[in-house]
Amino acid sequence: MSNFRFPKAQRICNKNDIGLLFGKAESVRQGSIILRCIFRESVNHEDLQQVLIVVPKKKVRKAVDRNRIKRQLREIYRLNQEVFKIENPKGKTLLMACIYAGNPVANYHDLEKNYLKAKEKMQKELIGNVD
User: Fold this and answer.
1) Which label site among 32, 47, 60, 61 has the fewest CB atoms less than 10 Å from its CB?
2) What backbone torsions phi and psi does residue 36 show, to the nearest 5 degrees?
3) Which residues of 33-56 are buried (b: 16+ CB within 10 A; e: fewer)?
4) Alpha carbon distances (Å) from 123 to 72, 80, 119
5) How high is the pLDDT of residue 110?
6) pLDDT digits (tens, 9 = 90+) for 16-36
7) Average pLDDT rounded to a whole number, residues 98-116
8) 34: CB partners within 8 A, 6+ apart
9) Residue 99: strand pairing partners
10) CATH of domain 2-119
11) What integer pLDDT is reported at residue 84 of this predicted model?
């Protein structure tokens, strides 16, 4: 059961990493989910995969709805992080942004289905682009 954790070390908090993600990252869209991923050099003993969950205020106006969708996306990531484990090149960390771009009302099962399909597409794309 300890594999289903989502500690702070797996969250992206650094502005440089966020800038890198929204600058030159690979992007895949599936339904209401957009995944952006990029590899960067690993620093010391950090996790090999870090994630950022984004629900834009422009798409989902009410904070209550935004927070609910963010909770759902975090839970989907947490439960499925071992399903599609992307192999990192040596000395690299995978940065991933999960962006919600749908209606304010989100169904958990649709979110999960879209996330898994997007993650599968991203995995195929990253495997093709790894040097």
Assistant:
1) 61
2) -120, 130
3) bbbbbbbeebeeeeeebbbbbbbe
4) 22, 14, 6
5) 94
6) 999 999 998 899 999 999 999
7) 92
8) 27, 28, 97, 98, 99, 100, 101, 118
9) 34, 54
10) 3.30.230.10
11) 62
